[in-house]
Amino acid sequence: MAVAAVKGRRETMTAPEILAWLERRGSRRNREGMARYAIVAPKAFGVSVADLRGLGKKLGRDQPLAEALWKTGWYEARMLAAFVADPARLTPAQMDRWTRDFDNWAICDTLCFHLYDRSPHAWRKIAQWSRRREEFVKRAAFALLASVALHDKTGPDAPFVKALALVERAAPDERNFVKKGVSWALRGIGRRNAALHGPAVAVARRLAASDAPAARWVGKDALRELTSAAVVRRLKRR
Asked: Do 145 and 78 share a structural domain?
């Protein structure tokens, strides 16, 4: 049975104990709030993200516990897995398994933003998932690309330039969560530094002139941010 030590205390929490903790803190109001933001989850207690992050900090990184939480199928347990899983111990196969389970944008983005982007397999998965048909697997490719663009402060520019081709290829996808993920990735690359800003804006302009409605939306959405005075000033200061 997976067990996590709570920092600063002797007590431990197993996956069943964590589920009981989540159930006590869940509320109908939070579940209704999830629905308003198009977060569809068949098993949800209605626990705030702030509570999940707080518990995650107490538990610390614990890969066996993360795996046990994921297997429960509960939305909040899987969100918590993003905060307690060890990115260094994630295998490509496990990332694929978890990503195939994604059923809403929130679980997709949380794992990409707080876990997957720290994995040594991140770039490989960006390339692989960008070619997948499943809506949230494909979104994961671009949510992960956006997350790496924001969090990897020292990586070279070349992989991001190459990734612009993935953005351009996926932009015509009409599905709402995919096209929003593609825009997020394009904007993330363009905001990264001045050297990437120009190539990203060039892609956004091509997309904005596309005959494909989704590609036009992505291009215009990205251009609004990338050509804004705030972004241009920030890049000049860098």
From this structure: no
